[in-house]
Amino acid sequence: MVKHFLHISDYSSAQLWDILNLSKELKIKFHKKETYRPFENQSLAMIFAKPSARTRVSFETGFEWMGGHALFLGPNDIGIGKREAIKDISRLFSRYNDMMMARLFDHAHMVELAKYSSIPVINGLTDYNHPCQIIADILTVWEHRKTLDDLKIVYMGDGNNIVHSWLQLATVFPMIFVCCGPEGFEPDQKTVEMVKNSNISEFELSHDPESAVKGADIVYTDVWTSMGQKEEAKKREIIFSDYQVNKNLMLKTGKKTLFMHCLPAERGREVTNEVMEAPYSIVFDEAENRMHAQNAIMVYLTL
Questions:
Q1: CA-CA distance, 72 to 49, in Å (whole number)?
Q2: Most CB atoms closer than 10 Å: which of 41, 193, 208, 261?
Q3: Residue pair 185/121 in contact by the 8 Å Cβ criterion
């Protein structure tokens, strides 16, 4: 049976720990420049409806370090869901390649791609979720805190795909997760209900940044305007202005809090340059861990 990586909530706590432990092992191998080639003579098709420098570089570098060949297919190469049926692309690529990674707009397209595929499909991002990012995030938190016990994560901003994947992780790993943003920009209610029904974690919705960050182990933010929303940029800048992560907000936590951002960051908008460059910012450890976490996911899917 083919294994895919579409949603964090598809995996048990034990399985996610296997991936995290494997991530650490592969990170050590990578830094030691050890030879590790589980994908010798194999190919990874990387389908990008949404462009991204980090996703392309991390997947391509990681897969080729592990002995394989990664093929980049941009928005004009396929036109997924427009020029050709998704199920046709899926079945065709399954005959050419050994694995697929897709970064798409419509989450239903990702689900359909996996449904018709006879090779592993990895969700590199959709408008609904971003599971590879959150595996990298929790790996980074684990590295810095040495434990995932008694964890409070406060996300500042739009209830977007990053939030949805954090919420899915909260159905597996216990935590307090707070989403703090303006009214009308809350996360998907069905995903929130998943957390409540799991009885694993606590979820809080807040519109007050200063009270939300009290006791936070992690303050996390993302751009206020994602790809495909650029026409809303000026409007959102006004609406979200009170939710900027700055030095004063970080001081309100009352403890040694770490700052995270999935990048790219618009310095001076959702986060100040001062916070990005602060000693408590672990943004670039987080960014590096995208590759190590993704490498582990790819290997795990073939075990």
A1: 11
A2: 261
A3: no
Nearest to 237 by CA among 157, 175, 140: 157
**pLDDT tens by residue, 28-41:** 999 999 999 999 99
Are residues 155 and 183 in contact, defined by beta-carbon separation less than 8 angstroms? no
What would the pLDDT profile of 224-253 be if each residue is shown by its tens digit? 987 666 678 889 999 999 999 999 999 999
95 CB-side CA count, 13 A: 5
Taking the model in full, what pTM does it have? Answer: 0.96
Pick from 67, 71, 88: nearest CA to 79: 88
Rg (the chain; Cα; Å): 19
DSSP bridge partners of 123 = 102
Q: How far apart are CA 45 and CA 248, in angstroms?
A: 45
Q: How far is the C-alpha of 192 from the C-alpha of 68, rounded, in Å?
A: 38
φ, ψ (nearest 5 deg) of residue 24 = -65, -45
Residues 6+ apart with CB under 8 A from 174: 151, 200, 201
> Do residues 122 and 132 lie in contact, with contact meaning Cβ atoms separated by under 8 Å?
yes
Q: How far apart are the two ends of the chain, measured CA to CA in Å?
A: 11
Domains recognised in the chain with CATH numbers: 8-130+290-302 (3.40.50.1370), 132-286 (3.40.50.1370)
Residues 135/20, Cβ–Cβ less than 8 Å: yes
Query: Which residue type is seen at 241?
Result: S
The token pair at 197 is 């029904």
132 is catalytic: no
**E strand map for the chain:** 43-48, 69-73, 99-103, 121-125, 152-156, 176-180, 202-206, 218-221, 258-261
Query: In the chain, which stretches have pLDDT less than 50?
Result: none
